[in-house]
Amino acid sequence: MSGARVYGAPGARTRERMASVGGPPWQVPVALIAAAVIAYVAGALALLGGAGDLAAGAWYGRHQLAAAHLVGLGFVSVTAVAALLQLVPVLLRTTLAPAWRGAATGAALWAGAAIMAAGFLVPVPRAIAAGGALLAAGAAVFVADVAAALLRAARTEAGPGASGAGIGAAVAWFAAVVPAGAVLAGNRADAFLGARVTDLLAAHAAAASLGWLGGLVLAVGLRLGPMFALSHGYSRRRGVVAMVLWHVATLAVVAGLAADAAWLRAAGAALLTVASLTALGFVADVARHRRRAVEAPILHLGLGVACAAAAVAVEAVAAAGGVDAARGHAAAGVLVLVGLGAGVTAGHAFKVVPMLVWTGRYAARMGTPGTPTLSDLYPARLAHVEPVAFAAGLALLVAGVLAGSRGLAAGGACALLASALAVAGAVADCVFGRGRAAAATSVHPTSSSTHTKGGA
Amino acid sequence: MTRDDAVAALTGVVDPELGVDIVSLGLVYGVDVDACDVVAVTMTLTTAGCPLHDAIEGGVHRALERAGARSTRVDVVFDPPWTPERMGAPIPA
Questions:
Q1: Sequence-ordered list of residues with C-beta below 8 angstroms from that of A157, at least 6 positions apart, any chain
Q2: N or C: which end of chain B has fewer CB within 10 A?
Q3: CATH topology of domain B3-80
Q4: Tell me: the pLDDT tens digits for A322-347?
């Protein structure tokens, strides 16, 4: 074709084709995501157990700690490892890690989070230490693998790109959060380094939820959001600006919390509001330019970014004395950890798992009659139910916490548990039900007519 | 094998994400069939770095071979980039 730019010699592996190789066998990320979803359900159960305490403004109880680590580490972080094993070759044109090491890393993070959460719940300090050690080992390998992949990508002509840089920034937060958490788990009462433990805990929670989880959501959403929405003509620059502002704001918030500097916290919160609104503008722009119906990933991305903006607003109201400060902190924490971190992860699981299962089971059959499409594997009914239960549950829980209503908070936590069960059902259906049945039932008329005409 | 046979075979390659065949999507930029039934396809994808790149390219090879091509060549290009406006556009001769 005249004027066409061909990457590589005809028949050779093009640069973009090379970008799609290097992922692990599909069973590795799917198994990690399935395990992560179990942690999500367990975290939602722990949240239900701690809903009453949250409504009383107690954000540092055993149920709350267990829920935060099960959701933030067991669900979101393990899903992130699984997704990055598959996504890094696409984004950075290099592998993240050999499949066995990726699986071991994810398993260590998951087991560490589960043991640690059990240690918080019972409570058993030795279990917290053992889980923390396992977690730290998995995190160290993961951080080293991401850093190495980014360095390899930086040496290439294309570089790591905006998404790669965003992943690097988020992982840098993770690298800081895990050792800080270990120090705090070993010293949960006394002041040290001239700071109160509660200030350091708040800084740790902000770094984990905003820097690691929020930063990762923005970096991955920058690439996957438009891809899943089939969006063209949107402003990518707006997403990049939002990502940069987000990390600067997080730095100010974390430093302000650790140093108990109100002016720094306020500056960070103001910047975070701008970053959230810019990110929301990016998501709206992607949705406006989409060429397909809005599905779970883009819906949750928009909802998650709105939750981040709402968390800042809640903290501002609390600072102005409009609501009890402790309950304001608890509500803001729920909005960021659950609304942004867990929600966006759950939304993307509805698309990522069918894609992985399809690639593993049916990609080699493509071009032959009867091959199922991804939509045959997409659990549409659960994907419609889950965001409704999630949004209602989150709204009720946050309202219950802010109003000091245990009943309202428990009702919200129940709805969130239902939404987590919907995600678990969707994954199980895709792997064991729909994903197997699709092969037997799917017939595409174009395939049939083509091969009749071709006489094959 | 004629060019029409090759194009018809390509309508059997359905984008697994969108559920629409690659010809109707406007992903195929050119199809050439020589006297020895060697088929050369120039095509694009909806997005560069698409994780389904290998699957779609493999599907093109398989569909053409099933339709009678002796050998196949697929060039994936990203210039001009695909836009949804290309859906339904005829393949340039």
A1: none
A2: C
A3: GMP Synthetase; Chain A, domain 3 (3.30.300)
A4: 899 899 989 999 999 999 999 999 99
